[in-house]
């Protein structure tokens, strides 16, 4: 064991003549394009973009006019469908009230125990229900979807 410790160790020294000098001077980047080349390329891209815009501007304008016309043409039908669904839901609410209160003596649909709620308007006038009354007999998911529609848009 003592013989193993007696082996001469070789020290790590610099190579003969020393190490190479460390390069620390700034090396500027190679210039591939001059300022004129870049400016000419920019002008070329601009001219090309204007050319492509002029090629498609008329088509884009025509498409926008067509879409606007289609929206204006379909708008009355969408309003009519909305109003139709509104009246159907009011009818469903009325039928649900009739079904729910059929066993209550003296209950007449659209009144409060046979007495009109709105006395100063003609009997055949539509009284629009408030939001909660409108969705009273529909599913809670429909009410939630309509109440919080702005959160999803």
Query: N-to-C SSE series?
Result: HHEEHH
User: What is the beta-strand fraction?
Assistant: under 5%
How many angstroms separate the termini? 84 Å
Low-confidence stretches: none
Number of helices: 4
Q: What level of helicity do the residues show? A: 40-55%
**Tell me about the biggest sheet?**
2 strands, antiparallel
> What structural class should be given to the helix and strand makeup?
mainly alpha
Mean pLDDT comes to 83
Radius of gyration: 42 Å
Q: How many strand elements? A: 2
Strand order of the largest sheet: 1-2
**What characteristic shape results from the CA principal axes?**
elongated
Protein name: NADH dehydrogenase [ubiquinone] 1 alpha subcomplex subunit 13
Subcellular location: Mitochondrion inner membrane
Transmembrane segments: 33-53
Subunit structure: Complex I is composed of 45 different subunits. Interacts with CARD15, but not with CARD4. Interacts with STAT3, but not with STAT1, STAT2 and STAT5A. Interacts with OLFM4.
Quick synopsis:
This protein has 153 residues and is an all-alpha fold. The chain has helices at residues 2-5, 35-100, 131-134, 140-147; strands at 111-112, 115-116.
Architecture overview:
The chain has 153 residues and is mainly alpha-helical. The chain is 54% helix and 3% strand. The chain contains four helices and two strands; from the N terminus they run ααββαα. A two-stranded antiparallel ribbon has the order 1-2. The radius of gyration is 42 Å and the shape is elongated. It starts with a helix and ends in a 6-residue tail after the last helix.
